[in-house]
Design brief:
By secondary structure, the chain is α+β, with helices and mostly antiparallel strands. The chain has one domain: Aminopeptidase. Helices cover 32% and strands 36% of the residues. It is built from 5 helices and 7 strands, in the order αβααβββαβαββ. A 7-stranded mixed beta sheet has the order 1-2-3-4-5-7-6, with helices on both faces. Strand 4, helix 4 and strand 5 form a beta-alpha-beta unit. The longest helix has 15 residues.
C-alpha cells in the first residue's frame, strides 16, 4: 500500500489540546468562521482547564472542540472541523467525545448555541439528541448587524 493510501486509511485521533496547537487551531478557526474566536479566547480556555480536544489525522489537526463544565451542567463552546473535510463524520466524533467527557464528569444537562443559518450543525445536534429550548436575540455578529442564536440542550444519562 502506498503512503498516500495509508494516510487515507488511518483513522483520526483525539487528544487534549495544547497551547502549541493554537497556530493550527487558529488557521482552521479563521477559515471556518466569518467571526472567529481569538487566540486569547482559546488560551483562556486552556488556562481555565476547560476540556479542549483536537482531532488529528497523524499529519495535522483537522478539528477541535471546547467544553465548559460547572456543577452538573456543561456548555459546548466550540466544535469545528476544517471546511474541506466536512461531511466525513469528524464533527460528530468531536461532539460525541465532548459528550463522553461531560458524562464522565457527572453532567446532567449539556447546552450549546448555534446560528440558525448553520443548517448542517443544527442537523448534527438534532441527530445527537439536542432539542431547541430557546433563542438568544442578536447573539452572533453578522454582516447585517447581529444574528440570533438557537439554544439547544440535551439531558445526559449514564451509559
Amino acid at each position: 500500500m502506498n503512503a498516500a493510501l495509508e494516510r487515507i486509511a488511518m483513522p483520526a485521533g483525539l487528544r487534549p489540546m495544547r497551547e502549541s496547537d493554537l497556530d493550527a487551531v487558529m488557521a482552521i478557526e479563521q477559515v471556518a468562521y466569518p467571526y472567529p474566536w481569538t487566540r486569547g479566547i482559546f488560551r483562556d480556555c486552556l488556562r481555565a482547564d476547560y476540556p479542549a480536544w483536537v482531532l488529528d489525522d497523524s499529519e495535522r489537526i483537522i478539528g477541535y472542540g471546547v467544553l465548559s463544565v460547572a456543577a452538573d451542567e456543561a456548555h459546548v463552546l466550540n466544535v469545528c472541523v476544517r471546511p474541506d473535510l466536512h461531511g466525513q463524520g469528524h464533527g460528530r466524533r468531536l461532539l460525541r467525545s465532548l459528550m463522553q467527557i461531560a458524562r464522565a464528569r457527572k453532567v446532567q444537562r449539556l447546552f450549546l448555541e448555534v446560528r440558525p443559518s448553520n443548517l448542517s450543525a443544527i442537523a448534527l445536534y438534532d441527530s445527537e439528541g439536542f432539542n431547541e429550548i430557546g433563542r438568544r436575540p442578536r447573539y452572533y455578529p453578522a454582516k447585517q448587524g447581529r444574528e440570533d442564536a438557537i439554544v439547544m440542550a440535551m439531558e445526559l444519562f449514564a451509559e
